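Please check this protein record:
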Amino acid sequence: MSKLVYFLNGPNLNLLGLRQPEVYGGTTLAEVEAECTALAGELGLELRCLQSNHEGQMVDWIQEARSEAAAIVINPGAYSHTSIAILDALNAIECKVFEVHVSNIHARETFRHHSLVSLRADGIIVGCGTHGYQLALRQAAHTLG
């Protein structure tokens, strides 16, 4: 069984550590990816890190993961609240899906309180900062055995 995990980040997450550090913290996406790649190795997982500001690219990667990945860790960014296309792509795959949000979306603007992706997620980690990614990876490893 594959132990490949797609590590997908959506729009504006390339600015992690730079954009609104009071909300998202000072850790960059490159630092998160390095920490998570190291952790994945310790957990016996392989990580494929991808980020895009484009919805269609996210859908393409989810569809690619359908035949390659055992799990997806996804922070869809603002697409969480708007993208039926991403939800449909996730519904078309059988692997485990873990949704991550760096900030507590339930303590922010009302429009952020609902995530379409959560309808498909096997686990959701919200408001734990960038450490939430590591929690998601640990859960993926636990679930995959």
About this structure: The chain is about 35% helix and 20% strand. The first strand starts at residue 4 and ends at 9.
